[in-house]
Write a structure and sequence with these properties.
The protein is mainly beta. 12% of the residues lie in helices and 37% in strands. It has a domain at 35-97. Strands 1-2-5 form a 3-stranded antiparallel sheet. Strands 3-4 form a two-stranded antiparallel sheet.
C-alpha cells in the first residue's frame, strides 16, 4: 500500500458510485482525488482504510474489490451498525470522503 509522506495523513477520495445493497448495507466506490497518489496506490486482500466522516469520526472499513479488475477505484461494502456507518449511509455520489 502506498501512503503519503506520513501514513497518518488523510487522502481525499470522491464517491464515484453509491450502491444500496439492502436497507442497511451499502457499497461505496471511491477514487482518490490526487492522480499521482492514485497511480501508486496499491492494496492487498485483507487490508482496510480508516474512513473519516467529517464531524462524526472514523472507522476501519475493509476494501472489498480486486485492484486488477479496476485500478482506478476501490470499494467498501458497509453495514449500518453505529453512528459513523449511519452517517456514511447518508453520503451521495459525487461527494468526497
Amino acid at each position: 500500500m502506498i501512503y503519503p509522506q506520513d501514513a497518518y495523513l488523510p487522502l481525499q477520495a470522491k464517491i464515484i458510485e453509491f450502491i444500496e445493497d439492502a436497507p442497511d448495507i451499502f457499497t461505496i466506490r471511491l477514487r482518490l482525488s490526487d492522480e499521482k497518489v492514485r497511480q501508486k496506490y496499491r492494496f492487498q486482500p485483507g487490508q482496510f482504510n480508516m474512513i473519516y466522516l467529517y464531524g462524526v469520526g472514523e472507522a476501519a472499513i475493509s476494501i472489498v474489490n480486486d485492484r486488477d479488475f479496476n485500478d482506478e477505484i476501490f470499494e467498501h461494502t458497509i453495514q449500518v451498525v453505529g453512528r459513523i456507518t449511519k452517517g456514511m449511509h447518508q453520503l451521495q455520489q459525487g461527494q468526497y470522503s
